[in-house]
Design goal:
The chain is built from 14 helices and 2 strands; from the N terminus they run αααααααααααββααα. By secondary structure, it is mainly alpha-helical. It has one domain.
């Protein structure tokens, strides 16, 4: 499917209608759907959430754009509702958390491999190894708290083994900042990657902050608190790679283009008929949003949107298992640490981050406690214990 961002009209804004029944459609089955359908649903919820977050921030700073933004934002609100409500009610918050971490691993790995800027690719790989460890810690919690094997969610696409240890991920805020891409020189794909990864990580932070207090188990509450803190670090990292000199209008156009790109990526690889139809519908809607924003740009700023947008879309995000790539990154880069915007060997990590980490871990590390003595095995600890007893 060839899409021209500057000329394809999509569905006009005034024809994008919803009803309450339309907003709440039949959810997927957590057991009878491919894991990457869940991955796409979770990511697209994050993409829509970021669109709303940006639109509200922009409206607070730009009186002239408020009416335009409000019209598009209402459509985005309804799109996010429909997408997020596709998750099933019998999928527990902790099982959904496993899905969130699979999104972080497989999507980040896909972006890192396709990223043309070597430094931005390194930033992505750095965050990848931390999310990889988060999956392992949450898998241990799921096994021990609910007796559920995390592989029922990940379906064998993603390894469940330690990454860069979560207790080592805590850093001074200055060591979470990165160098931004240059908007004048950066490839369009680099910009789309930056907006995509920021969207996914920000929604992950918000999800953990929301659901962490729902748990009665003290170990679970502490683990969510610890990893939510790392997710805030990731949001800081990924927002800092976006050129801060982009104008509000430029950022709005890039947000809309990124939504088109992500729905296009989903549509190209979805095999669930009902969900695929939603991706197709919302791709058309987002093309309509983009054309609306292009018209606003021309009317309000008197600028040519071709200054900011590519004419055609890059190749879609690769929704597939990246197991071998992740294993190689783990072998090569697990000992990397951050010194300001640079990546260094762990022996060169600045004292400010060491000091911060010692203080945060002074009473112990929840991520270490949850996974103490645990290793993933098919079926989880309950099955393993039963096998030991039968052997005895």
């Amino acid at each position: 499917m060839a899409i021209n961002l500057l000329h394809d009209k999509g569905t006009p804004l005034h024809r994008q209608d919803f009803t309450w029944r339309d907003l709440v459609q039949k959810p997927i089955s957590k057991l009878n759907v491919d894991a990457f359908t869940r991955v796409r649903i979770i990511l697209m919820n994050g993409i829509e959430s970021e669109s709303l977050r940006f639109s509200h921030a922009c409206a607070r700073m730009n009186k002239e754009l408020q009416g335009y933004l409000a019209r598009v934002r209402r459509k985005e609100q309804h799109q996010q509702t429909l997408v997020n409500w596709l998750l099933p009610a019998d999928q527990s918050p902790l099982e959904t958390t496993i899905g969130y971490e699979q999104v972080a691993i497989e999507v980040t790995a896909a972006l890192a491999q396709a990223e043309p800027d070597p430094y931005i690719a390194q930033v992505l790989r750095y965050g990848l190894l931390e999310d990889f460890d988060h999956l392992y810690r949450y898998a241990a919690l799921l096994d021990r708290l609910q007796g559920i094997d995390a592989n029922t969610i990940t379906q064998g696409y993603t390894d469940i083994v330690p990454g860069r240890p979560t207790l080592d991920e805590h850093r001074d805020p200055l060591d979470d900042l990165r160098e931004p891409y240059d908007k004048r020189k950066a490839a369009a794909l680099t910009k789309l990657h930056a907006y995509t990864i920021l969207s996914g990580e920000h929604q992950t932070h918000d999800y953990y902050m929301h659901y962490g207090p729902w748990f009665a188990d003290p170990a679970a509450r502490q683990l969510y608190a610890e990893i939510a803190s790392i997710e805030e670090q990731h949001v800081t990292q990924y927002e800092s790679i976006i050129d801060p000199t982009e104008s509000w209008m430029e950022k709005w156009l890039l947000h809309e283009a990124n939504e088109v790109y992500n729905y296009y990526s989903c549509l190209e690889q979805e095999d669930h008929p009902h969900v695929k139809a939603i991706w197709e519908r919302f791709l058309d809607y987002e093309l309509g949003h983009l054309q609306f924003a292009i018209d606003v740009c021309q009317q309000v700023e008197r600028r040519d949107p071709a200054e900011f947008l590519p004419e055609t879309l890059p190749a879609p995000i690769a929704y597939k298992s990246h197991r071998e790539y992740v294993r190689q990154v783990l072998r090569d880069e697990v000992d990397l640490r951050a010194d300001g915007t640079r990546f260094v060997n762990k022996q060169q990590e600045p004292e400010r981050s060491r000091k911060y980490r010692r203080q945060m871990n002074a009473d112990g590390s929840p991520s270490e406690a949850v996974a103490a003595g645990w290793r993933w095995s098919p079926g989880g600890e309950l099955v393993a214990d039963r096998g030991l007893k039968q052997a005895a």
